[in-house]
Amino acid sequence: MKILSKYLTTVGVASILGLSTAATAATDLTMYYPVAVGGSLTKIVDGMVDQFEAQNPDINVNAIYAGNYNDARVKALAALQSGSPAQLSVMFSIDIHELRNLEAIVAFDDVVSTNEEREWLNSFYPALMENGNADGKTWGVPFQRSTIVMYYNKDMFRAAGLDPEMPPTTWEEFISMGQKLTQKDGSGTVQQWGAMIPSTGYPYWMFGALTKQNSEVLMNQAGTETYFDKPGVVEALEYWQDLGNKHAMMPKGMIEWGTLRQNFLDEKTAIMWHSTGNLTTVKNKASFDFGVAKLPGNKELGSPTGGGNFYIFKDSTDEEKKAALKFVKFMTSAEQAAHWSKSTGYMGVGPSAYETETLKTYLKAFPPAAVARDQLTHATAELSTHEAGRVRKFLDDAIQAALTGQSSAEDALTDAQKQAERILRRYK
Amino acid sequence: MKPQIIKLTSKNMLNRFNLKAWLLLLPALSFLIAFTHWPTLKSIWRSFTWARSDVAPSQFVGLENYQLLLEDPVFLKVIENNFWYAIGTVPTSIALAIIMALWVNSKISGTSLLRLAFFTPTILPMITVANIWLFFYSPQIGLFNQLLALVGIEGPNWLGDPDTALSSLMVMTIWKEAGFFMIFYLAALQTLSPELYAAAKLEGASAWRIFRKITFPLLMPTTLFVLINAILNAFKLVDHLFILTKGGPNNESNLLLYYIYETAFSFLDSYYAATLTVVMLATLAVIALAQMLLLDRKIHYR
Question: Hey, are the CB atoms on B265 and A252 less than 8 Å from each other?
């Protein structure tokens, strides 16, 4: 209602004052954004928006929290079809191909005009641009971006006789340390698990890390091919299966994404793999000494990037596009990116953020906050294809079928690959 | 004053009454048409068409979408799941509702407190309930497994195990629904004539006999109403899936309406989603009709 009345007031006022206002009228921007990890992220976004409006009195930004990534896309697209669209939104970085197929977004290359703006477009970490580029243009600008990192309980490392400053760096170490960290009570019931990798919510994302560590990728840059059934990919899934089934250092079956952080905070697991977006919450709530490290590797280190990008919608006036660009530039500027990174745990999107006093001081006091950035050199794109939702589900289902023992890793992935090929054939 | 004479031809009467009736119906009817009938017709039409994306023009493809249904293993799985889900939740929640209603209808002290307790799950939003139960079901930190651990049992991974995921959803649904149905039974129980019970007592009938021969038959109209609602809810209520399992693991707890949501909003395939919707509408219509026609004749106590 509030949005509607605001809109009606704007329209009403504009029509009363007539054409003469056009030059001085404020530009209204509507933006949807998602939050995937909980915590008080909405307040942080609101604070940044207020600051932008104070600096730019001629632009009003109406930032609407829209649930998780899926909800945010649904709401932005619904607004688009209803004729009162948003001008920009933060959405899943991997929605790029579908948003382009729907002809919903414009390339940033077509909105920037000055040299300074072009430079800005090139100022981000290249690994974060992989999910934002297609056909030689940039469609998504990184904002709330993450990698998967390994959180570990240093107290438990000490109790198990392990060096708390030497977390596992290879797949073998991950198993051997995980087994040492697994504690059973007298009756054989596990009281403390060695590690947990979540397999609900975003299983394909965790799997992207394991495949990259095995020197494989899940798809091509154009999003028209998937490689789910390659031997190296199958091997990665078998490794994941074995952690629970063979090495008994992780619970068998599914591990819930939504409750995993609580499991870690309640000291039910010594290690968890999770988004860096959880870092600040873990820091505030952990009652024990914890560390953050890069994920262990096999043939190489690796993690997919993740998270949300800014998109500018096609269905907007040139004036609105310019204002939207101004807003995106503000939100990704060094100072704001540093503030955002410090408040949430998401990474600073460009090197300049890490040269600010804010982050320099913060990193000195709290070195784990740099892990996500340091891992970027080993990062790969997150699974993103045409008809991404459907293709992602094929892989999610295959992973869950393998982890719950309903089928072998090879059968499940071969099946997922076949189904993905059937869908993607049309886009080649 | 001379009374005005109106010629009471049958045609005249009909028009006058009709116009008034239609005017009175208009507000409700326009909403019903705009938000129920028109979208239904559009969905049916859409289920016979297809386009590459929402911006491309759609074309008529006949029954192709329906053929795809039969080749879609997930569709067959959600139908099977929904069948078991209805079987698992409906009779149990109705039985529980009757027991609870009888209990809180008796003249013991503290019944209003009991009524409140039974009704509380109904007041809470499904999403809230699901968020609480997500932690109840959590294998390591959850309430259920901690209770089981007290007696030395290692509890299962309720939502993560293909064998228990759907049943876990059912248990939560029963807990949520039974209190709601209890209210209808409680209302019905309070309308029953006390003379019947006095007469039964005089005859020395046992409590079970009274229930079987008097209470239960007299409650039949309520049972039909509750039964229809419970079955419809088994298809309509999927809010908890968003929080608890997202249909996983590997679709073991996926239900038809959630699959429709996924198809429409995650896969962005409104044509296939429309096809699934038509299947759901047809199923619900058949169930409701069957209940009305078959059961309605047998429920009234004579």
Answer: no
Do A60 and A100 lie in one domain? The reply is: yes
Mutate to test the interface with A, among B168, B242, B244, B268 (most CBs of A within 10 A): B268
Cβ contact A98–B268 (<8 Å): yes
Interface subset of B 264-293, CB within 8 angstroms of A: 265-269
Task: Name the token pair of A214.
Answer: 């095995």
- Bridge partners (DSSP) of residue B234 are none
| A53: CATH | 3.40.190.10
Tally of domains in chain A: 2
| Residue A387 region by backbone torsions, left for phi larger than 0, else alpha for psi between -120 and 50, else beta | left
Question: What pLDDT is recorded for position A7?
Answer: 46
Chain A positions touching B54 (Cβ under 8 A) are: 81, 102
| Bridge partners, A33 (sequence order) | A65
Using CA atoms, how far residue A341 sits from A146, A281, A288, A292, in Å, is 10, 12, 23, 15
CATH node for B64-296: 1.10.3720.10
pLDDT tens, position by position, A173-225: 999 999 999 998 877 788 899 999 999 989 999 999 999 999 999 999 889 99
Q: Do A138 and A250 reside in the same domain of the chain?
A: no
Could you tell me if A61 and A133 lie in one domain? yes
